[in-house]
Specification:
The chain is mainly α. Among the domains are: 62 residues, no CATH class; 66 residues. Helix content is 63%, strand content 0%. It has five helices and no strands. It holds the Pfam family PP28. This is PP28 domain-containing protein. Keywords: Coiled coil.
Amino acid sequence: MPRGKYVNHKGRRRHFTSPEELQQQSEEEEDSSSEAESDDEGTDQPGGSKARGAISKSSAKSGKMPTSSEDSDESDEVDRDAKKGVAGLIEIENPNRRLKKVAQKIEHISLDTKPELSRREQKQLEYQKNRRRYEQLRAEGKTAEAKADLARLALIRQQRAEAAAKREAEKKAADEKKNTNDTVASGGSSATNSVLTDTKNKKPAATNSKVL
């Protein structure tokens, strides 16, 4: 039978690629890609990528430890290769990679500089400032709302004073009326008592009876 398009791998031994072979393949791909980029961009630094690839290959074959600069270059290349394909989805921590730290001199650091606020924080700060200023003006009675409150309060006080005066006048009139009624009642009772007293004190007139 002619051999088909797809090969049946059943019954065969599985072949696993070692990490060294994977690293060598990635370096070869890096060399080929760097050569293609150097050909497209021009010949500013010819042979740079080839030299790095040759150094890395020779060091890998000979088993010698690379220097610090070569180690950093290789770590950068490994990082770039890891970002390609599925390997870019996996976060790998490389202990050989040196982090670049920006050191500032002490004389260039100013303690007086205030941290920059975001737009939202600036709006919140401005709102709080305006609110405090409005509350202060309101307490001093300089705002339109404060003036309206004072006018309403004065009107309420006037209405209360008028109602209190009216109640006092009504109470006084009721007291005067009560005193008048008491006086009339006491005067009538005294007159009746005097009439009764006069009637009791009167003696009957003496009558002389003559017998004819």
